[in-house]
User: What shape does this take?
Amino acid sequence: MTIHLFSLAILLVPLAATIRLFFVDPKQTARIHGIAKLATFIPLVVSFLMWMGYDTSGEKYQFVTDIPWVESIGLGLRLGADGITIAMLLLTSLVMFTGVYVSGSITDRVKEHYILLLGLGTGVFGVFLSLDLFFFYFFYELAVIPMFLLIGVWGSRAAQYSKEYATTKLTLYLTAGAVFALVGLLALYFQAPEGARTFDIRKLEAMGVDTDFQRVWFPVIFLGFAAIIPMWPLHSWSPIGHAAAPSAVSMLHAGVLMKLGAYGVLRIGYGLMPAGADHWMGWVALLCVMNILYGGMVAMAQRDMKFIIGFSSSSHMGYVLLGLATLGVTGVSGAVFLMFAHGIMTALAFGLIGFFYDQTHTRVLDDLGGMIKQMPFIGTCFVIMAMASAGLPGFANFASELLVIVGSWNAEYTLAGTSITVRYLPTIAAVWGLVVTGVYLLRAVRDAWFGPPNPRWDGLKDAVTFKQKMPFVVLILVLTYTGCFPGRLLDTIESGVRNVMERVEAAGAVDAAEVSPESAPDDEGAAK
Amino acid sequence: MIEAMSAWNVGLALPEWILTATALVALFYDARSPADDKKESIKWVWFGLLAATACVVIEWMGMKTGEKAWAFRGHFGFDAFSALLKTLFGLTAMMVLSIADHWLKRVDRGHAEFHLLTIFATLGMFFVCSVEDFAGLFVALELITISFFCLTAFKRNDERAIEAGIKYVVLGAIASSFLLFGIAFLYGATGSLRLDALGGVAEAFAHGGEDAPLLNFGLLLVIIGLGFKIAAVPFQVWTPDVYEGAATPVTAFLSMGSKAAGVTLLMKVARACLGDGAAGLATAAPWIIFIVVIAAATILYGSLGAMFQTNIKRLLGYSSIGHAGYILMGFAAFDQAGFAAIVYYLMAYLFTVIAVFAVVVIVNGVIRSHRIEDYSGLARRSPLLGFVLTCGLLSLAGVPPFAGFFGKFLVFRALIAKAGALGDMGPDYAAASVSTYTLAFIGAAGVVISLYYYLMVVKRIYMDAPPEGSEEQPIVAPQRLKGLLYACLAGIFLLGMVMGPFMALAESAAAALVAVH
Amino acid sequence: MTVGHVIVVAGILFTIGMMGVLARRNILVVLLSVELMLNATALAFCGFSRLVGNFDGQIMVFFIIAVAAAEVAVGLAMVIALFRLRLTVNVDRVDLLKG
Amino acid sequence: MIVVFFWIFAVLICGGALVAITRRSAVSTALFAVISFVGIAGEFVLMQAYFLAVVEVLVYAGAIMVLFLFVIMLLNLGEEDLRILRGPQLHWVGLVLGALFLSGLILTCRRAGLFEMPLEGGAAGETKALAVPLFSEYVLPFEIASMLLLSAIVGSVLLTKRRLH
Amino acid sequence: MAVFLGWLTLLAPLGAAVALTISPSLRNSSRGPKVAIASVLVSFFTALIFLIGGESIEYISRWSWMDLSTSDGDGLLIELGILVDPLSKMMLLVVGGVGSAIFIYALGYMKGDKSIGRFYAKFALFVFSMLGIVFATNFLMIFIFWELVGASSYLLIGYYYEKPSACEAAKKAFLTNRVADFGFLLGILMIYDLAGSFDFEAIEAAVVGNNLTSTNPAQLAFASFLIFLGAAGKSAQIPFHVWLPDAMEGPTPVSALMHAATMVAAGVYMVIRVFFCFGGVGSIDWGWAPEVIANTGAVTAFLAATIAMVQRDIKKVLAYSTLSQLGYMVMALGVGAYGVAMFHLTTHAFFKGLLFLCAGSVIHGCHHEQDMFQMGGLRKKMPTTFWTFTVGMLALTGIPPLAGFFSKDLVLDALHVRHFGGLQFVATVTAGLTALYMGRSWFLTFFGKYRGHAEVHESPKVMTFPLIYLAICSVLIGAVGYFGGFQEYMGDRAGRDIGVLHINASLAITSVFVALVGYGIAYLFFVKKPELADRAKARFSFVHRLLDNRYYIDDFYLWLVGSVQQSAAQFCRFIEERIVVRGMVGGTVAGTRFAADRTRRLQTGRVVFYAYLFLAGVTLAVCAMVLA
Assistant: This one.
């Protein structure tokens, strides 16, 4: 039994706050806000400290907490962080912290709102920190369920879909994905010989997994997580969910929750089943093209602001998938970095949309227009967000997408089951995706913010107080800081990714050695 | 061992005696005391239950690990398994009586009969945990069943209650006939009514490749008879009707007590079929596939049937079918891990179901309706009840951090272990292995479907506005039931988050069940 | 004569009982058909008792009869209650609970 | 000799039951059922289970059937009810299912070789032979059965009481 | 020290932009613009220091931006840095020299604008982005600032965000550039594949050392063509030219800065910077790429000049003129005369900057009237503007000894030397057209009678001073450059085998003659006999319509975006809503609901039916068991 205060604190503080909130009088909203702010600020500080304290050349997992939970089945509360985790923790704590600030506009059942929000946060932190398959799933579901109520109770209508429809769809999709993956996780648990069975990811990594097993079960686990990423065509829950959710929840949802899937693919798919990943990810490179281009095209045809950002998220997550599919340090680091960048960026987007939606009660572009006149601050932030999202330099999104694209350019995608090797094609699509992204984002900016001011919106109030401005400023600062000076964060991510990818590359080398003798001439012919 | 088995050792059945005495005293008390004051005063029966349960716990504490005590010349066994389940049954009965008190206050009649029948049923459940032969099994099961027949039709002025009773009686009697017919064949196959006599035949069948038609036929019918009790497809049809028609506390008792009794017996029979080598029928591919098919059908039926329900009790009836399916997944695993999973599942199920039904009783007391529609805005009218019901439903759905999740998790775990093990056993078991994996995925689908209808209720509770004019009308949980609700809530969370100690209990129970004596 | 014959006769009786349940709408007759089924099992027990050569099977018949009596008592009580409420003993009319 | 009786009783059992479930009137159903029970008692005798035969006749053909008749009379079904409840309405599916079940059963018996096991021989099921194990080995089920009957009484009273206090 | 100066030069405008953005007090005070001006002046002075310092100040300073490399050198390393060599020094001079003038000018032009602070913030940001391109040491850095230039141009063009046309123009500029950058980035990646590095030095070394992974000319040509696409986007070459005329929606200083000195020059500058990818050095054959480039330039030069002839908006004329002149530069690039292209870029920056500012001054004087047909006779009312405009015009049309004469004739000479006869002819004709449309606008604006209504006044000193400064430069810089050894200073960028070029007397006389003819026609049509213009218009109405509609290229794009792309988007949306949501998800839901409904209906409520089900289950199980 080892305990590291940092990893435990990051998990326990939101949990403790959740429990504390149960016993607060619902009328004391100021107090409730206070607790929520504190409970999100402490993890922010702790995750920052963890980042600072993380040794990029040290142990693979640091800040390890290991508390036996159900010893007879090898289950323990095992927490720890590598570089990838640190990036995700920073992202989560930032989004949580700012999310609490932007949800100040909520007046209905404040207490329940924060209980669920913090419960959600606990779950997300738990997933990122878990070094135990069981708790990975446990925390994941813990994050999904509060979402149902958060969207259903405090959400809003999403175009032709009611919020209830949206939230149900989201919850079912996410649970279906998770349960699907759970079967895979259990199979992973049982492939170990009797007596050595454990849910401990570190031990499983050390033991290694049979290659054939990996090839059979990797798709199961991957598909489970892919529904969360969300990979085309399993994505349709996501835009509707985004659109229906209240600000803070959209922020968390798009900013953090969608990253859980990719994180799961990395931590479990790649970490434990490197050969499976090596075998299958070629197909993913093709599918993610659909994400990028198709998501972008659908976003182009949308008029509801949140739908635009929602589909753009699925487009951006296509880049994450592409980065993962490269199976190289550059691409995967880029993907993780992009997870971080996209998380911050979408959080910003949804925070801003929520801010004006609270006043306009419409997000449809045709109703808006010229609002930058009335809301210069929010408008400026939105333009900055759009720039970041469109992949302009100076923001982390650009840096990370660049890494993904460069990484992907050199990658060869072998389609398992066929003798086809694809090169360049996904990258070309990804680069074209940048154009598509620009189109719909600029259109949204033009239609909502620019153009002649609409007298209908004369009464709109801009963000004026520190409390109102702070979350947006913080997110923009982080986005630009990491975009201009990615070094430190990227080093952290890289150290984590390198540890994971070493095994994948080794598996790939073995695979190539097995395959090459007979199929080498084929590859030549099929290239390009 | 032989000595132990031939001893009478009547004291071992002390909890049962306490219950019997309670029943008899209550019967006399009911007959003698004037009508008005026994309404309330019959509540002392609750303490009889408490005493019996406490007695079980004390006996259990006094036992060494892995020890099994015998009484009635080896026809009554007591080990960790039976102790744990008896405790569960005792707790169930006590909780049900607590709920029933509240409900009876409203109905205002039949207090004594309700308590008596509850005690009888509980007594049957206690015996079920300890019987070692088919005669006892059958009689104890019938004691439960007949008590439940009467309890179901307790509101005899209510057409629905009587209808539920009729359906239950007719189908229950048919099921009993099949069970008996099956026992007859097993008796023919083994030459004995003892459960453990099955093992030898089963092992011979599984390993020697010897054909055992009598065993198979008998076992099939026994499974059908018990499958009726736990509401497994295709013997589940009674469940929604009876759940809907019966009084709510009875439904609660049915869904936990009756089902758990069936499960207990199934576990005992299954264990017997494993034989001493603990492999027995667990290595018979057709049987595995048979259970897998039933489990899959049950899960799907329960999940699908509940989707369009508008009555919460009916919904819970379907949900109960679904849970039977998940429990059967544990049987498909057919080993110690599976049994431990089932035991844990039952523990989790107990607190969850009682919590849910307690809320249903309280809410019904105010709004006089079981329509899900009328639960709209419950969280506004009573945050506590809304919260408890939500936790309960989500626990039923199998979502962390609630108890139901870990139960389901263990079942899945056991099942996939079995699937993997079957896969390693060679080509003869390929079909069994594949079907077992398929069951895991069907189970996963079932979780999603069932989550849907539970969430629809949660949606009512939290998202919908209370019906016109009722915003001002809060629903208050009575103080005594509040305690019960908190206890259930604690159970739901503890079993869902701090699994270690409970898992140890479940595992010791399963170990005791599987142990060779 | 063989044990098989006894069992087959029991099986036939059991099936007839089952058919009775399926065919008849009068609850009383349905209950009676169930009694036929229970009797069939009793016959089977007795037959198997001969096969295995001990009396356990015959003792089981006692319990069957006891249980059957109890079931009949409760069943009939319920029929009476039903009749009082609905003035019918037609099982097809007992279908409020469905769906 | 035994063969002859066996078949006579078998015909009684099956014929009685068959007629019982096809009679329109509930009363005649009950009466024909008694014939079936008597047949069973006969088979018991053939299998030297004398005590069971007695119990069968006393309890089943006697007490239980009387109870049935009593209730039939009590309910006093009118002409109309009897018309509605006329005769059997068995769907062919039921027959097929029943036939399949029965053939499965017979096949099982054949596979188990039950048709090679002679019925004759073995000890007679006299009172003492049954009483000893019943009150030693099986005393527990016996006691449980007593509770069961008690429960049934309580339940029946509950269900049929006209008015509660 | 020099290294520090380089970084300071790069970062100063960024600092100004950030300061103006985050500090409201600075933004709203009169100090704000001054800070921005100071930050640009830094680059002007740095350019002077660097040029004076000569070879002693040539260096590369690197800062690792994203480092994914291992200790043994594998993996990706992306650096930002400062590359100071003759080329970047010269470009820095252009940006600083012209930029400072425009910054100062804007002080007058934008006076009275409420958000002048915001304007200067964006302006400074733009200069920062441009300087990044100037100083870039590697392809990724140039790409980064390439994108930043796009973004800041978006902000500047859309400065009048309340005007829908401005927003549209901004978006158009950005997206057109994005499409071009699609090619650019792919080109960069291809070069990365070929040379294994993004770094200019390394790639050049690989090219010279013949160390590319492939020497297949088709592949190499494709790579350099893709890179050229990026340049074509920024330098507004056909088919990416459409954004530039629309970009005149921005304030005039913006037009002057972007379309004279910086953004449009960036494309040409980039090609010169990576001339080794276009066959500038080494012995590797780069296939068909150079020819395509040269032809693109020629087509652009000619088409833009023809369109310029029919424009009514004074800024639009200059915009098309810019396109046309860029066409010259690109032609020079295509034939490998990089030094000449740079020379023309430099001179063009000054005189086109001057012209734009003059136009701005006219617009300012006429109270934001841009239609030349609403002007006339301004010669008297705005003398300074008139004279400076005249200088700029003469320089543009290549009248000796002004700047344009030298640079344009060198381009012609380059075409001649490389035997591109056709292109040479087109270029000469275009020179005549240039004179024609410039003369037209000159006459329309400054001669004849005033046709407008508003009171016209000369612009304030703060605006005329930069005009005079640029006019002087426009007069001198050509001769100074030509005789002062500009091409030699560019070193090997003068071209692989083209060497240092000299004015060819016959070519010069021809081009000057053609220009004079152009002026003559302009005089005839717009001063002497204006009705002649109308008659020509009527006579050649088809041609006029074609020109007026800009060869329908914009309409084609509009159709492409409006119909094709929107249809594609709507099609995807249709798939999303019908197939993914309603089909897949809805189908699953409907299937489940159907199954659920059927399941529910099994519960008929009739106990007899239940018994049937029961028996069916039993029988099924028994049969399965017996048969098994």
